[in-house]
Amino acid sequence: MRILISNSSEIPLYQQIKDQVKDAIFKGELMEGDALPSIRAFANDVKVSVLTIRRVYEELEEEGFIIRQVGVGTFVSTGNLELLRDSKRRLVEQKMQEMIQTAKSLDICKEELHDMMDILYEEE
Question: Model-level pTM greater than 0.85?
Fold first, then answer.
């Protein structure tokens, strides 16, 4: 898993990292039971504070994406598949909302947008 962060982004570092870990889980790059690096190792790899990675891990655990076992390690958890599916849907909904706002600002009607989506979806 490769994490890219931007210091010039308005998005906080912990959120950039958390989003990329979740994305890797969504895409299947990280699978159920895969070990994640220790907080210290991850912080060194990404060149951020251990506090930043600790926050990432805490939030991912609260959301059900990882399990931390003291003395053993941190592992990907997709045990709650409905949570995972819902998170995927939310991600798509966010992207669609951006697309709809852009289409509206460019005076593209709903039917035309729908036709565009049909064409693009079939191409994949």
Answer: no
